[in-house]
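Changelog excerpt

This revision adds worked examples to the README so contributors can see how folded entries look when concatenated. The first example is reproduced verbatim below.
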Amino acid sequence: MTSELVEKLKSGLKGNITVISDDGVNDVVVLSDKKLIKSAAELIKGTHDILFMLTIVDRNPNFELNYLFSNYRNKNIIILRVNITQDDYKIDTVSKVFPSADWEEREAYDLFGIEFKGHPDLRRILLPEDWPGHPLRKDFEVTDDVRNWTGLDLKF
């Protein structure tokens, strides 16, 4: 049985959704056009309370972003998957629709270097501002700049 939300996403996003799972409890959909992320979030906001997690999968050279939304009343979770390519590691923020995305997006920026356009405070959240690079990327290299950023001779 296809969930009402999945049908709403298919209709509202004009076919730019591929359904992976739609059992009405744990739905997984893939958004084919990252430019529609805000529209998708707005549609999801009608039925879900919170974005509780944003996970990133480094598929070197591309990234897969998985937005996990929850509805506390009926315990439904929907995962919205979006792929971004190496030629443009930027995507619109959803923090204006789901304020809980604020720190999730900052963490993704800090550790993977993904830029969230329109984010109200996009800066590092875990690492110091002068940290060289984004350490959870597969192509991150431990260079002398990384070893010596604290002034200590760190052994990696």
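The second example, added in the same revision:
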Amino acid sequence: MDRRPAGAVVLLLAAAACTSTPQPPQQDEATSEGAPSESSAPTGPTAVGLTETYEFEDGLSIALSDFSRGTDTYIDWESDPSGETEVTDPDGDFVRFAFTVDNGTEEPVDLTVMMADCAVGDPAVETEMGSYGVEGGESGYPPDSTVLPGKSAQAMTTCQMDKDENELQLSVSGNDPDAWGREMVVFVGEVER
């Protein structure tokens, strides 16, 4: 029979509790064995058709329309200082389209935190945006203003696209994901040659 004082037994039990190895929490059968829980499920970009309107959960929507093809020209100041001679840019084939943002949210949306990237071909290769096919006063880039609730913003946007290509991908995401606060959407489809 062990004749230790009762206080010693309490101290031993307390010491054992402090030095025991913690056990991992028990897993629920529904999420065990490799099945991801809802909070850890991977999320990726959402792909939509090139001419579809995509609406984010908060009511903001983006649509691409009015596609056209062209070849950029420039003034050859070197050979004609008068500026009257236009030359076709050998790398200046482009696709031009309207990029429209409708603000169906209840707050103003700052589009300066939105970014867009063009890729062409299959497999897709990133290409330049905004430098080709720009007409008087246009930037060639998506809208970059603040859009008030219930209002829209539109800009004619261009992507370099060789005349032999017809596959276009336009990715829209946030250059500051926390400020943008929306998933990436990729518009994918064919543009007539």
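Reviewer comment on example two: The longest strand covers residues 86-103. The chain is about 10% helix and 40% strand.
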